[in-house]
Amino acid sequence: MRIGIFCVVVILSLSSVAPVSAQFKQGEAEGPQMGDSQTTCWRTGMIVKATGGACRGITGYAPVPTDWPEQQVTILEEEVSPEAKISYKMIDGGVKIMNVRIPMLAAGKEAKALVTVEIRRSTMLPPEDTDRYVLPDEKKMPREIRLYLVPSPKIESRSPKIRKLAKEIGADQQQAWKKVEAIYDWVRENVKYQNGPLKGALAALKDGTGDCEELTSLFIAICRAAGIPARTVWVPGHCYPEFYLCDESGKGHWFPCQAAGAREFGGITETRPVLQKGDNFRPPKKGRERQRYMAEYLTGTPTRGGGKPQVRFIRETVAK
């Protein structure tokens, strides 16, 4: 999914928003705290039609929103035709998918596999005491967190150029929070926002330009090269990064920041639904390459003299 073409709208809408810390009263609990919330309804899935003849063995999947600390999801309705069977599964801890199986679909018939959910998404407030956070110990890090220290598609964190930057940026900072903030400010100061095709962290570093995906990818790449877990958060039409630090008790926390747009570090005013978190997904279909964003997928086998499945993937907000 190429979302960069929408990012200029995000920048214009956020540029007039005051910093998170200026809008909300700071919390005293561990990690980021929740601020104001917004509720939306989201419909996702697929509509499949057998064209040119009957089809069999139709299988596919589509991402669906799921719960996160800042987001609660409630299923309101499932529209599933009798021909379709669905199930849900988490992939790589960052995306929930709806698996769809249609054993047989008669010629000209249409089958639906759709789910409508209510999403309550909260803004996130930066912590009041940032001195308490430290870099995580990789040896003690859970496996699911260590995954965010390795390269991803278009996030070339092992590149010598990026590893060199990771050693230089914030080298004079003793506090972990200030180290990450130095990386954040460096990326925003050295990469000019410019809409365009996806090119990744290294290309953005070389060109000095990029949109929300490039700024996010470069920030994540430098963080990972510095031993700081970081990942991409995907919302409709936009993406931003999260970084991971531990408190004095050793408990880890994810903190957001806005790479493109208003300066928001450690907290964020974003209220669009979180669609996925992560940028290195292995699709369930064997042989498919890892993906930055888990895309929808469908395949099927025509019957003898039959046709092929025609699919329309659905991703949209709907009225309550």
What's the structural blueprint in terms of helices and strands?
Elements: H1 7-14, H2 20-23, E1 33-51, E2 55-64, E3 71-80, E4 85-91, E5 95-105, E6 110-125, H3 143-146, H4 160-168, H5 176-190, E7 192-193, H6 200-207, E8 209-210, H7 212-225, E9 230-235, E10 238-246, E11 252-256, E12 276-277, E13 297-302, E14 308-318
Parallel strand pairs: 7-8
Antiparallel strand pairs: 1-6, 1-14, 2-5, 2-13, 3-6, 4-5, 9-10, 9-12, 10-11
Task: Explain the overall architecture.
With 320 residues, the protein is α+β, with helices and mostly antiparallel strands. It has 2 domains: 4-30 and 129-266, C8orf32 fold; 38-121 and 287-318, Immunoglobulin-like (Sandwich), CATH 2.60.40.2250. The protein has 7 helices and 14 strands. The protein has helices spanning 7-14, 20-23, 143-146, 160-168, 176-190, 200-207, 212-225, and strands spanning 33-51, 55-64, 71-80, 85-91, 95-105, 110-125, 192-193, 209-210, 230-235, 238-246, 252-256, 276-277, 297-302, 308-318. The strands form 4 sheets. A 4-stranded antiparallel β-sheet has the order 3-6-1-14, with no helix packed on it. Strand 9 (230-235) and strand 10 form a beta hairpin. Helix 4 (160-168) packs across helix 7 (212-225), helix 5 packs antiparallel against helix 7 (212-225) and helix 6 crosses helix 7 (212-225). The protein starts with 6 loop residues before the first helix and ends with a strand. The model is unreliable at 1-28 (pLDDT under 50).
